[in-house]
């Protein structure tokens, strides 16, 4: 389960790298938090294996308690994620607008926006007309070249749905997340199932070890 969480954390960090570059620090910390949780579970599991191998009542009990705490934290995180899902959308939208306003001024941010628009085949926040609200693009009636759906140096001049991506990046990112949420949910349920099994088996082992002590 720890390895699975580590894999999910790395996948989320890589897949959302460009989107996170224009998002908030709290959003960018989510994949890292999943990764850290995976590492913690991995070492706790190793601790539990040692306790089972040595038949140490104290180590197995500690393992069961720590695993129970992690399970409760994961349940709380899932509930919080569902409750604040609209807030996450609002924060992402605000950060996308901020990134558009700083386009051309911050080199790293400009590159992140360009790669985001090309990777997700999108333009602007809600649609390509959002760039018309940015002064430097409004003057010449243009959009960034990364919005172009055709390979041409003039495709970004007087943009239209025929030459640039019409769909906004907010919508594209949301669609990507909905498409992959089933994978994340399946992994989370699988991990929760094995954590519950781990807690049950640890309790059974604790009972067996205690019985052995009583016999002795």
UniProtKB/TrEMBL annotation:
<feature type="transmembrane region" description="Helical">
    <location>
        <begin position="31"/>
        <end position="53"/>
    </location>
</feature>
<feature type="transmembrane region" description="Helical">
    <location>
        <begin position="60"/>
        <end position="84"/>
    </location>
</feature>
<keyword id="KW-0472">Membrane</keyword>
<comment type="similarity">
    <text>Belongs to the tetraspanin (TM4SF) family.</text>
</comment>
<keyword id="KW-1003">Cell membrane</keyword>
<keyword id="KW-0812">Transmembrane</keyword>
<keyword id="KW-0564">Palmitate</keyword>
<dbReference type="InterPro" id="IPR000301">
    <property type="entry name" value="Tetraspanin_animals"/>
</dbReference>
<keyword id="KW-1133">Transmembrane helix</keyword>
<keyword id="KW-0653">Protein transport</keyword>
<keyword id="KW-0449">Lipoprotein</keyword>
<dbReference type="GO" id="GO:0005765">
    <property type="term" value="C:lysosomal membrane"/>
</dbReference>
<dbReference type="Pfam" id="PF00335">
    <property type="entry name" value="Tetraspanin"/>
</dbReference>
<keyword id="KW-0813">Transport</keyword>
<dbReference type="GO" id="GO:0031902">
    <property type="term" value="C:late endosome membrane"/>
</dbReference>
<keyword id="KW-0325">Glycoprotein</keyword>
<dbReference type="InterPro" id="IPR018503">
    <property type="entry name" value="Tetraspanin_CS"/>
</dbReference>
<dbReference type="GO" id="GO:0030154">
    <property type="term" value="P:cell differentiation"/>
</dbReference>
<protein>
    <recommendedName>
        <fullName>Tetraspanin</fullName>
    </recommendedName>
</protein>
<keyword id="KW-0964">Secreted</keyword>
<dbReference type="GO" id="GO:0005771">
    <property type="term" value="C:multivesicular body"/>
</dbReference>
<dbReference type="GO" id="GO:0009986">
    <property type="term" value="C:cell surface"/>
</dbReference>
<keyword id="KW-0967">Endosome</keyword>
<dbReference type="GO" id="GO:0005576">
    <property type="term" value="C:extracellular region"/>
</dbReference>
<dbReference type="InterPro" id="IPR018499">
    <property type="entry name" value="Tetraspanin/Peripherin"/>
</dbReference>
<comment type="function">
    <text>Functions as a cell surface receptor for TIMP1 and plays a role in the activation of cellular signaling cascades. Plays a role in the activation of ITGB1 and integrin signaling, leading to the activation of AKT, FAK/PTK2 and MAP kinases. Promotes cell survival, reorganization of the actin cytoskeleton, cell adhesion, spreading and migration, via its role in the activation of AKT and FAK/PTK2. Plays a role in VEGFA signaling via its role in regulating the internalization of KDR/VEGFR2.</text>
</comment>
<dbReference type="GO" id="GO:0005886">
    <property type="term" value="C:plasma membrane"/>
</dbReference>
<comment type="subunit">
    <text>Interacts with TIMP1 and ITGB1 and recruits TIMP1 to ITGB1. Interacts with CD9. Identified in a complex with CD9 and ITGB3. Interacts with PMEL. Interacts with KDR/VEGFR2; identified in a complex with ITGB1 and KDR/VEGFR2 and is required to recruit KDR to ITGB1 complexes. Interacts with SYT7.</text>
</comment>
<dbReference type="GO" id="GO:0015031">
    <property type="term" value="P:protein transport"/>
</dbReference>
<keyword id="KW-0458">Lysosome</keyword>
<dbReference type="InterPro" id="IPR008952">
    <property type="entry name" value="Tetraspanin_EC2_sf"/>
</dbReference>
<dbReference type="GO" id="GO:0042470">
    <property type="term" value="C:melanosome"/>
</dbReference>
<feature type="transmembrane region" description="Helical">
    <location>
        <begin position="181"/>
        <end position="206"/>
    </location>
</feature>
<dbReference type="GO" id="GO:1900746">
    <property type="term" value="P:regulation of vascular endothelial growth factor signaling pathway"/>
</dbReference>
